[in-house]
């Protein structure tokens, strides 16, 4: 599935030259938002939101690889700066570079695997960022989420648990759909890369009072440690070969 016609339209609408191309959605200074100097000067908020929403539509429909950049820039849309506008232009240069990419939905079986990740304090107000990809089989993208967390996590484990809680809500909805369709019951695989979050999720808080409020219920699900976290690109800027590696199962 692709939107090459829509991409051509927005590239023309926002005057993106054909020769302007970038190999990643985020510029090298994406997270280094200046508080002073030319980069901190206000940008045209109407143009910024218009251009951002056009990219958001593309990301939601067929391009999971730009979801982090779009989501993070959306958190700055109330008062965009010249730096934010430059980051948005860089995103369009990446869209220009990757306009031939196609989303491939080819589920090999009905097994669900949820890759759930989070970044700690990546936003200016100290909040974290959730990234979730739910796959059906090996290359069937069923659900993608990249969003600023609504709760303030005080450390990385708490941010990971907030993300797991968000993912469990969506997984329950999908399992409900499986039941409606009378599909065989399955054990959902949840991939995580934070051992503390996995332990609390699977076993509860134990006797540690400081983690009591972070208990997450995991039933009919199996948690495992994953090095290949497909959701990594939904929580932080990823560049080069690692980006291409993470999107290769479903986007190329």
Using brief descriptors, characterize the structure shown.
globular, 252 residues, alpha/beta, five-stranded mixed β-sheet
Tell me the helix content.
25-40%
Taking pLDDT < 50 over at least 5 consecutive residues as the criterion, the unreliable ranges are none
Dominant shape: globular
Number of strands: 5
N to C succession of SSEs: HHHHEEEHEHEH
What count of helical segments does DSSP give?
7
Based on CA atoms alone, the radius of gyration comes out at 19 Å
Sheet bearing the most strands, described?
5 strands, mixed
**Assembly level:** single chain
Mean pLDDT: 89
Strand content: 5-15%
Which structural class do you get from the secondary structure elements? alpha/beta
Calculate the terminal CA-CA distance, rounded to whole Å. Answer: 11 Å
Sheet with the most strands: spatial strand order: 3-2-1-4-5
Structure description:
The chain has 252 residues and is of the alpha/beta class. The chain has helices spanning 4-13, 45-61, 67-74, 82-97, 156-180, 195-203, 240-247, and strands spanning 112-119, 129-136, 140-148, 188-192, 221-225. Strands 3-2-1-4-5 form a 5-stranded mixed β-sheet. The longest helix has 25 residues, at 156-180. It is globular, with a radius of gyration of 19 Å.
Question: Summed up, what is this model?
Answer:
By secondary structure, the chain is α/β, with parallel strands linked by helices. The mean pLDDT is 89.
